[in-house]
Amino acid sequence: MSEWIADLGELVIDWVATVGDVAEFFFRTLSWLAMRMPRRDTLLPNFYQIGVLSFPVVALTGTFIGMVLAVQSHSQFRQLHLETRLGAVINMSLVRELGPVLAATMLAGRVGSAMAAELGTMRVTEQIDALSSMGANPIQYLVVPRFLACLVLIPTLTIMADFMGVAGGFAYAVFGLGIDSNHYWQNSQDYVGAFDLFSGVFKSLFFGAAIGLISCYRGFHCDPGAEGVGRAATSAFVISFVLILVLDFFLGIALDGIYLSIWPEGVRLL
Amino acid sequence: MVNQPVPAARSQQQLIELLDVSVTFGRNPVLRDIRLSVPRGQTLVIIGESGCGKTVILKTMIGLVRPTRGQVTFDGNDINKLTEKELTHERIRFGYLFQGAALFDSLTVGQNVAFPLREHTDNDDHAIQDAVISRLAAVGLPESVINKKPAELSGGMRKRVGLARALALSPEVVLYDEPTTGLDPIMSDVINELILRTRSEHPVTSVVVTHDMHTARKVADRVIMVYPLSRLEPDEPQIIFDGKPELLDRSGDPRVTQFVQGEAGERLMEMRKMADLRLANQR
């Protein structure tokens, strides 16, 4: 029994220490970001890797989310003879929830794991130590450009995923299911407001920061060997994904509170 | 806890000093009360079996590993009490050749060697390019390797690029971590020659970590041997030899003789006993 309590205590201490470590890592990143902007030659490759190379996969994700939403909601709405309201439902779900969350999930897998694996390999092969030994700060040189790229580009890619989702949903609803396009857009316009788009993009800012921070932290604190690098890449994705869902929940409550305090009546579907 | 200032006259002679340094990783103690001074201009070789803490000593000298206890001074300054800016300033007085060379995979050979020059000098691209070519030539590499990626090079070439990068800013101290490990005998001796040539070209203090006795005998002014803590009694010192390389064969300590002559002795039997014991405990 006492051994069990000791194990539990050790686990709690480890967990608290890790949270403290992550917080310190985050503040060091922020302070370097505030002190000195990264150089163009360190920033551009990261923007290219995270932004340009993620474009096709995020566009594809967005398009299919829109189309799947149209498929899934159509049969339900048809029973109520509300097919023309599909635009409202698809676009609202997309810009508030599914676009930001699924784009961030996709990016946590594509970008986050790759960053953790790259930094982990650099740790294992002493490249991070080499940077320090040459008087270059690894946080400033390696973490800040990646964090900044995630912070700027993940919301940008989310907007693009939203757009592609809206286009995909529209294309399938109008050309595949034969819904009148005028009513489709009219209902979307009545129901989806600027705040909805803002709330999705605002959340993606936090998702971007979480992916950047967790992936860089896991890479920096990678265990030795190929197994350590693999574990860092996997755990970067898993932790980022869980964090995206937790942040989505709390930010959703906060943004709903703000929305209802500005528009107490809300918007009615019918 | 030893944290007293070092007397000025002494620190002028001794460029690097480790004062009762202990390092523990998690629950695993690696170094215990290491007391070591490296005078200016000396080539100190640290020998010892794998896992005894040689590399950790090297890393504490440049502040890459913080001691759990004790003090590390460089040129009279406690390296762990410096601000980030001061530490950067001190670190560029060092050149560090890592065990696997630690070249940046994403950069070309030329960009790797140019890295410290771009970070710490105001030289234009043309001057940096010239410096890179001359540094590579000094380690026997042609200009044609400049645009290659480190992955395209052989082990010996990578080590030499690492050395060119370590020497790019003409450092006062060069730290070599296993410079000849994994190389063929001829390339190992090329690296030994480069270590000697670096010292003859400008006054440099060198610390070489190795378990290659040929390297130790060839480049050392002084050799120390570090012994693994796990094989020592609590009150035994961890540095079991400190002297000129020619005294290694006459040390009288069987542990030194065993290492220098590369004899397994009873070690295999000991390791088997330990493994059996662990297995029995698990059961």
Report on this structure.
Chain A has 270 residues and is mostly helical. Chain A is built from nine helices and no strands. Chain B is of the alpha/beta class. Chain B folds into two domains: 8-93 and 171-282, P-loop containing nucleotide triphosphate hydrolases (Rossmann fold), CATH 3.40.50.300; 107-170. The radius of gyration of chain B is 20 Å and the shape is globular. The termini of chain B are far apart. At the A-B interface, helix 5 of A face helix 3 and helix 4 of B.
Biggest beta-sheet profile of chain B: 6 strands, mixed
Shape of chain A: elongated
What value does the Rg of chain B take, in angstroms? 20 Å
Q: CATH H-level name of the largest domain in chain B... which superfamily? A: P-loop containing nucleotide triphosphate hydrolases
Instruction: State the oligomer.
Output: heterodimer
Assigned CATH architecture of the largest domain in chain B: 3-Layer(aba) Sandwich
Reading the helices and strands of chain A in chain order gives: HHHHHHHHH
Instruction: Kindly state the number of beta strands of chain A.
Output: 0
The CATH C-level name of the largest domain in chain B is Alpha Beta
Number of domains of chain B: 2
Q: Give me the number of helical elements of chain B.
A: 10
Q: Please give the count of helices of chain A.
A: 9
Helical residues, percent of chain A:
over 70%
Helix-and-strand structural type of chain B: alpha/beta
Structural class of chain A: mainly alpha
- State the CATH topology of the largest domain in chain B: Rossmann fold
Sheet having the most strands of chain A: none
